[in-house]
Amino acid sequence: MSLYPSPDLKVTLASCQTKKARGEKITCLTAYDYPFARLFDESGIDILLVGDSWGMAAAGHENTLAVTVEEMLIATRSVRRGARRALIVADMPYGSYHLSVSQAIENAVRFVKEGGAEAIKLEGGERRADIVHALVQAEIPVMSHIGLTPQSVHRQSGYHVQGTSDAAAHQLLQDARALQGAGAFAIVLEGIPRELAAAITREVSIPTIGIGAGPDCDGQVLVLHDLLGLSFRPAAKFARAYADLGPIVRTAAESFREDVENGKFPTDQESYHFPRHSSITIL
Ligand code: KIV
């Protein structure tokens, strides 16, 4: 029983776990700023992931490796201010947890204290289990991320479907078991065969959130810019665009430009005037 009123309005680790138990799907979108966090929160999305995909989707980087803790903190605070119901998960950028367990804790604490995150996400399987365990011991919930892990872009020789050999598939199953054992509350499964994602989802009792991992995961995540048709790269086959905002934005900007160039913006009604009866004169 909760001490506070309307506990079921807020998405929590427990409510995500309940959704898995009931076979209800968990929804997750990335968000990086206040307006989109508000809109997604008001749309009933369960989890807002402040993903380091920000580096590619919003900052125009080639990959996510250059993203810094400071940049992710600005995004996390903005999302925090826009969301009331959704669970806020902040992505730990490359280099912020790779040096030591204590470095990981130090940075993760910043996401909670300074960013307002309720959980953090980090990439990697069995190899990262000690970090996951230490963060959970420090009261920081962890969402893990295995399969195609964008921070491994060089080691994985680009962005390729993972787990396609017998050994690789078994390793991913083992990764999922190890992460659950270490205390992760959920696991993102990215870019793996549907059958493997289904097997991992059956194997672990914590929710799996898929992206390019087929429909059998406990939930699905999409990147905001893919959802809205604002990506300027060829879309992966799973990245369904639910809107095509590019032409809408372009038309608005073109209309503004034409109106300014033709003296149609602003009009007199859109201008301020001296107070009536004032005696101000301008030389
Ligand atoms: O950074 C991100 O947005 C992610 C999701 C694609 C899972 O890691």
Outline the fold blueprint.
Layout: H1 13-22, E1 26-30, H2 34-42, E2 47-50, H3 54-57, H4 69-82, E3 87-91, H5 101-113, E4 119-123, H6 129-137, E5 142-147, H7 166-182, E6 186-190, H8 194-203, E7 208-211, E8 219-222, H9 224-227, H10 245-261
Parallel strand pairs: 1-2, 1-8, 2-3, 3-4, 4-5, 5-6, 6-7, 7-8
Structural account:
The protein is α/β, with parallel strands linked by helices. It has one domain (13-244): TIM Barrel, CATH 3.20.20.60. The chain has ten helices and eight strands. It has helices spanning 13-22, 34-42, 54-57, 69-82, 101-113, 129-137, 166-182, 194-203, 224-227, 245-261, and strands at residues 26-30, 47-50, 87-91, 119-123, 142-147, 186-190, 208-211, 219-222. The chain has an eight-stranded parallel barrel, surrounded by seven helices. Strand 6, helix 8 and strand 7 (208-211) form a beta-alpha-beta unit. It is elongated and about 80 Å long. The mean pLDDT is 96. It binds 3-methyl-2-oxobutanoic acid. 3-methyl-2-oxobutanoic acid is lined by residues 30, 49, 51-53, 91, 145, 188, 190, 211, 221, 223. The site of 3-methyl-2-oxobutanoic acid has 12 residues, from strand 6.
